[in-house]
Amino acid sequence: MFKTEPENNFFRTNQHLCSFSKDGSYLASAFQVNLMIKNTGTFDVFQSFVFADVIEYIEWSPDNEYVLCANFKKAVIQIFSILYPEWKCKLIEGSIGLERVLWAPDSKHFLSLSDFNIQLSIWSLEDKEVRHIQNLKSSVKKQTNLQFSPDGNHLATVITNDGLDYVGIYKTSNWKISRKLMCERLSSIDGINWSPNGELLCIWSSIISESKLLIFSILSESHVGAYCPEKRKESRNVRYGYTKHLKGIDIVKWMPSGQFLAVAGFNELVVLINHITWQPILQFNCNPVINNNYHKVFNECVIHVKDPSKTSSLSIKHVLEEVLDRPVNVPILKKDGKHEPQFTNLDILEFSASGRYLALRHQVYPSALWIWDIISDCTDHLLLRNSISNIRWSGEEDRLMIFTETVHFFEWHPTNVACISTPRGIIVSDARWHARGKIVALCGYNKVAIYHV
C-alpha cells in the first residue's frame, strides 16, 4: 500500500515531464521554462535551471551528470550539468526541424533527428564535432528505426535509399558504419529490436501477406534464425490446436532474459517464440469471452460507504472484485463515429521485470488489461470502467500500476490487486518508478505526487 508524503512531494510540471536519474539520486521535473532537480531523499530542490522556451522533453544522461531539455516546435536543445551548473550547451536545429532527441550511451554525445527523418545528427560534447546519417526511414514506428544496443557498442538504424531499405550498424566508438544489412528476404524493413545482451538484432517486415522476422547475430555476422507467420500457420495450428494465426508483424518485444520473443500482429494474437529454434511455443488470443475458471477476472465496481465524519453522508469507493461466474464478456470499444480508429491492434505489450508476466491491451477493448502468466499459461483479466491510459511495471519486482485518467489507479501483484485513490483527487495518467522500486512519481496533466511503496 501507499502512504501520503509531505507538502514538498507535490509539485507542478509540464505534461508528464518528470524523470528519476538512472542511479535514483535525483528527480528532474519541468514546469514551463524551469527545470528543477530534486534530491530523492527529501525532495528539496538541489539545482534549478531556466530553459530558452517552454520545455517539451527532458532526458537524463546515462552517467547521471547531465539533463537534456528540448522544445520541438522551436527546434531548441539545451543541456545542463548537475555538477557544474554554470556550464551550458545550447543548439538550435533551424530549418531542418527537430523530431526526436536522445542521449548516446557514453553520455559524451547526443543525437538529434530532423523532421521527416531526413537527417540524424550526432553531436559531441567534447570536441563539438557533428556527424550525420542521412535518410532514416520515416514510415517506421518511432523507437524502432533507431536503436542502441544494450551494451552501448552499436547503433542500428533503418535507412531507405532509392526505394531500397537496409539496416546500418555503426560502432559508437568512432560512429563509423561497420555493416550494411540489405535483408533481401524482406519485402521492406519496418522495425528493429536488439536482444537484452546486445548480441542479436531482430529485423522484420510488417506487410500482412509478406511478413517475416529475421534474427542477425553481431558475433557471427550472419543471420541465425527466421520466423514467418504465414508459412508456420498450418503446422502450428495442427500441433497446438489453435484456430487463429498471426496476421503480419506489428510489435516485437524481448523477454528481459532474452529466452523468448513476443510477437504481436495486426489482429488480437500474440505469439511467443523461443530463442533456439525461433519457432512459436505458445500463443495468446485477446478473447472477448472468458469461459475458463482457471483464468481470474477482476471487475472494477463502485460501492457506497458511510462517511465516518458525516453521519448521513455516503461516499463512493472504487474496488476490484473477482468475478466467479462464467462466461464473462470483455467490453468492446464504443463506436461514436468521432473517435473510432481506422484500424485496431495491440497497443500495450510489456514484460514484467522477471519476464514471467506479459501485460497486453487491445484497442478494441480499451478498458481491459490481460496479464498473461507464460509459465502456467493462465491469465488475470482486469475489466475497468474507463479506458487505460498507460501501465508501468516496477523494474525490481512483478508489480504493475494501471492508469485510467481518473482520481484512482490500480495496482496488480501476483498475490493481490487493489484500487488506490490518488492524493488530493489528482487525475493520474502515468507514473515513473524509482530505480530501486520503492518510490513512484504519479503524473497528472500538470501535477506530480510522490508516493512510497
Report, as a whole number of angstroms, the end-to-end distance.
6 Å
Q: Uncertain spans, ≥5 residues at pLDDT below 50?
A: 234-240
Largest sheet: 6 strands, mixed
Mean pLDDT: 90
- Please estimate the helix content: under 10%
| Strand portion | over 45%
Strand order of the biggest β-sheet: 28-27-33-32-31-30
SSE-based structural type: mainly beta
Shape: globular
Number of helices: 1
Using the CA coordinates, give the radius of gyration. Answer: 23 Å
Number of strands: 40
Write the layout of secondary structure elements.
Blueprint: E1 10-12, E2 18-20, E3 26-31, E4 34-39, E5 45-50, E6 57-60, E7 66-71, E8 76-81, E9 88-92, E10 100-103, E11 109-113, E12 119-124, E13 130-134, E14 146-148, E15 154-161, E16 164-171, E17 176-181, E18 191-194, E19 200-205, E20 212-217, E21 222-227, H1 229-240, E22 251-254, E23 260-264, E24 269-274, E25 280-285, E26 289-290, E27 296-306, E28 314-322, E29 328-329, E30 346-351, E31 357-362, E32 368-373, E33 378-383, E34 390-393, E35 400-403, E36 408-413, E37 416-421, E38 430-433, E39 439-443, E40 447-452
Parallel strand pairs: 27-33
Antiparallel strand pairs: 1-40, 2-3, 3-4, 4-5, 6-7, 7-8, 8-9, 10-11, 11-12, 12-13, 14-15, 15-16, 16-17, 18-19, 19-20, 20-21, 22-23, 23-24, 24-25, 26-29, 27-28, 30-31, 31-32, 32-33, 34-35, 35-36, 36-37, 38-39, 39-40
